[in-house]
Design goal:
The protein is an alpha/beta fold. It has 8 helices and 9 strands. The chain has one domain: NAD(P)-binding Rossmann-like Domain (Rossmann fold, 3-Layer(aba) Sandwich).
Length: about 270
């Protein structure tokens, strides 16, 4: 019997690549996005169902979860929807801070909470969330983005203890750079004249970093590994760049690594 994965943020990038990979592997895919009527590629694939879902809409989350549970047997919930909020903290409005927290953090928590009773009752199931190497270390001008990704890492570890007794797993996939339009449509940039120099250096760093970025398909393979390897493992680093950064941090220590990053942006 084919297994089924429920995916958020499936309209582009990693979410779309994951939907295509799991479909090719024989899974049933429920691909959610804010505007499914605009999606042509996934809608043409067999065993792929498109549903509307805005992860900042709490009522829609509850209604969608109830609908999906009533129609399908779900095996994996992949919390992938998210975007990057870039800018000095001083430059960010409260509205933008709340939107980032609602999308990247509360959306994941609320969707997971909506599916827990279902997985607990059937004594199986797996949650996977896209985090980031930015959930392990911080870089300039992304403080609220990092706040969401660090939070997801700690939250997932804590929830793993609650769910394991019921045969339910939770995992995170933490990519480095992904060769998608993340730095375009999925990045909310907020310049501030007082931080112009560090902003310019950040863009240069972006260009350099993306020379070693992974494709969305490569990261989707890590998601598939996490979904199918049966390992009692919470965290999966994804991509050569993420693994290299993490190894460097382990090698020289957290504070030395922070200082090393800081020197790249010093005046």
């Amino acid at each position: 019997m084919s297994k089924t994965i429920f995916i958020t943020g499936a309209s582009s990038g990693l979410g779309k690549a994951t939907a295509k990979l799991f479909q090719a592997k024989g899974w049933n895919v429920i691909a959610t996005m804010r505007n499914p009527e605009k999606e042509a590629e996934l809608s043409a694939l067999e065993n792929v169902t498109l549903l509307p879902l805005d992860v900042t809409d709490f009522e829609q989350i509850k209604q969608t979860a109830q609908k999906v549970i009533s129609l399908y047997e779900i095996d994996v919930v992949f919390n992938n929807a998210g975007y990057g909020l870039m800018g000095a903290l001083e430059a960010l409005t409260d509205e933008k801070i709340v939107r980032q927290l609602d999308t990247n953090l509360l959306g994941v928590i609320r969707i997971t909470q909506a599916f827990i009773p279902y997985f607990r009752a059937k004594k199986s199931g797996l949650f996977i969330a896209t985090t980031s190497i930015g959930g392990f270390m911080g870089f300039p001008l992304h403080s609220i983005y990092h706040a969401t990704k660090f939070a997801l890492e700690g939250w997932s570890e804590s929830v793993s203890f609650e769910l394991s007794k019921f045969g339910v797993g939770i995992k995170t996939v933490a990519p480095g750079g992904i060769l998608t339009d993340f730095a375009g449509r999925s990045m909310d940039m907020n310049p501030h004249s007082a931080y112009a120099e560090i902003e310019a250096k950040m863009f240069v760093a972006f260009e350099e970093a993306f020379k070693n970025a992974s494709t969305a398909q490569q990261i989707a393979e890590v998601v598939y590994e996490a979904a199918t390897d049966g390992q009692d493992q919470v965290r999966y680093l994804a991509g050569a760049d993420a693994n290299a950064l993490y190894a460097r941090r382990l090698e020289i220590g957290k504070e030395a690594f922070r200082q090393e990053i800081g020197k790249q942006f010093a005046e």
